[in-house]
Design a protein that fits this description.
Elements (H helix, E strand, L loop, with lengths): L2 H26 L1 H11 L4 H29 L1 H21 L3 H29 L2 H34 L3 H5 L6 H7 L2 H10 L7 H6 L3 H8 L5 H20 L14 H16 L2 H13 L5 H29 L1 H24 L2 E3 L2 H5 L17 E2 L2 H12 L1 H6 L1 H8 E2 L2 H16 L2 H12 L5 H29 L2 H22 L8 H8 L3
Length: 521
């Protein structure tokens, strides 16, 4: 194997694979913990949502400063800091004695997520050979979804270890503190990532920014010939000199009349990617599946399927985006999201809840069955009404502790519809607006304001993601599962109309052609 190939593989392993994996893992590992922290800390639904969404809030703030900070300290240095933040967050979350400290620990991890989200692909783009740059940067997105899938898997594994009754599991407290281990296990890859970064060179483009010409050439020669390295260095230096002479775009330029169309498309797509509920699924998957009455273990297994489907269809999107184009993928994907959300709404709306004598008798012994006698034989057609009635009889703490068992004992519905709806939704998202959004952002905006514009629409995207994650438990509790997914479906349907009527196809067109087509002077 050639030295240049070995070097590229090292970059993938240490920066893309582990950095992207940590980002996906840290963001979604909370999905397995929410069931337990809700009862341990006696949280309201909005507090539960805050425990999930707080990471997104702090990651949004980190994204705004990660670039300038890395310009001063270097990409590699800030990535090391991010690795430390991941480890602190994992340990702090696992040991948190109060809800406040748990949220603080999660927000510390969010700072690492935000920094990695910006700097990992930036570093790879700056150091990869031109012919491999697109593939390697795209690979970062793939490893994020692998991290999401891995989080679902480790959550299930820890849950099963806790129930195994093995001496080692009891000695380690896995039967009592599953959620703490779910959040704490991230310490291991975070430590590996931190030390792995010591074997990664500094970005040659950053070194050139700092005037360290000889070291930049030395690094580039590791994966290409000396002649090619020198030519690339000279090209980069020329580009940097031209950039300093060129007048940069300002924030106010975004609101010029000629940019009205591209700004509208950017904002709508940024909102649409999140308001259709993708992070409700990624961050609350076991909770959603439990609503269909399949029980805790099965809900964690089905969450693993969510991660696997996400991986498969993300790969499909990467393979098809330049063959079929951006708009066809968006149309097919958004139509799929609309249909799947309709299926979920139908599935949950058709559910009924009845606690008869056999189902009450089969509940855990810790539940005082006499308290449920007034509800025996009653049939509820609304999950909200059923939960409120049972909680009123048992009390908040008992109801939330055994909510999964109570739903399983009483519900009558087809859980397969829910599984098909969720997996179909994830597939439709992963092959369309999930990855396509970022490609569109890189193509829509004119060169002069591209950096500012992507920062703005990226901020809007993160803000909507935060709001969706925060209020999702409240929506389920107040509006019910059927209405919540129906709302997501309505947003998807409106988005589909917008995509068909407004968004142009950008495949095969140069950035200059698109700028001429979409903007007016």
């Amino acid at each position: 194997m050639k030295n240049d190939t070995r070097f590229i593989i090292m970059i993938i392993a240490l920066i893309v694979a582990l950095g992207g994996l940590l980002m996906g893992f840290d963001a979604s590992v909370i999905s397995g913990a929410v069931k337990f922290i809700e009862t341990d800390f006696s949280l309201t639904k909005l507090e539960l949502g805050w425990s999930v969404a707080s990471l997104t809030l702090s990651s949004t703030l980190a994204m705004m400063v990660a670039g300038p900070v890395s310009d001063a300290l270097g990409r590699r240095t800030v990535l090391r800091i991010a690795a430390v933040l991941y480890a602190i967050s994992a340990i702090g979350s696992a040991l948190a004695p109060t809800f406040l400290l748990l949220v603080i620990a999660r927000m510390v991890g969010g700072l690492g997520v935000g920094a990695s989200l910006i700097l990992a692909p930036m570093y790879i783009a700056e150091i990869a050979p031109p012919k491999m740059r697109g593939r390697l940067v795209s690979f970062n997105q793939l490893n994020i979804v692998i991290g999401i899938s891995l989080a679902f898997f480790t959550n299930y594994l820890i849950l099963q270890w806790g129930k195994s009754g093995a001496d080692w599991a009891l000695n380690w407290g896995l039967d009592q503190h599953q959620w703490r281990y779910m959040l704490g296990i991230e310490t291991i890859p975070a430590v590996i990532y931190f030390f792995g970064l010591f074997f990664v060179p500094r970005s040659p483009r950053w070194l050139l920014m700092k005037g360290q010409y000889e070291e930049a050439v030395k690094i580039m020669k590791r994966y290409t010939s000396e002649e090619t390295a020198q030519a690339e260095i000279e090209r980069i230096k020329t580009a940097m000199q031209n950039k300093t002479k060129k007048k940069e775009g300002q924030f106010s330029d975004l609101f010029k009349p000629g940019l009205k169309l591209v700004l509208l498309i950017g904002v709508v797509v940024a909102v649409l990617q999140q308001i259709t509920g993708i992070n409700s699924v990624f961050f609350y998957a076991p909770m959603i599946f439990e609503q269909s009455g399949i029980g805790t273990d099965a809900s964690f297994v089905q969450a693993i399927l969510v991660g696997l489907v996400n991986i498969v269809f993300t790969v499909a999107a990467l393979l098809l985006i330049d063959k079929l184009g951006r708009k066809p993928l968006l149309v097919v994907g958004m139509a799929g999201i609309t249909l799947c959300m309709g299926l979920l709404a139908y599935g949950f709306s058709s559910a009924t809840y009845t606690l008869d004598a056999p189902s009450i008798g089969g509940l855990p012994a810790e539940i005082d069955q006499s308290l449920l006698q007034p509800l025996q034989g009653q049939t509820f057609t609304s999950d909200v009404d059923f939960k409120q009635a049972v909680e009123q009889q048992l009390g908040y703490e008992t109801f939330n502790t055994y909510k999964s068992q109570l739903i399983t004992a009483s519900i009558s519905m087809n859980p397969t519809l829910i599984l098909i709806g969720i997996l179909g939704f994830v597939a439709a998202f992963a092959i369309s607006i999930g990855p396509v959004m970022w490609v569109l952002f890189s193509e829509l905006f004119p060169n002069k304001i591209r950096g500012i514009a992507i920062s703005v629409v990226g901020f809007i995207n993160s803000l909507v993601s935060f709001l969706v994650q925060w209020i999702f438990p409240w929506e389920l509790d107040t509006l019910g599962s059927a209405t919540t997914f129906l709302l997501y479906g309505v947003f998807a349907a409106l988005g589909l109309i917008f995509i068909i009527r407004v968004i142009p196809e950008t495949k095969g067109k140069s950035l200059e052609e698109l700028e001429k087509q979409l903007t007016t002077s």
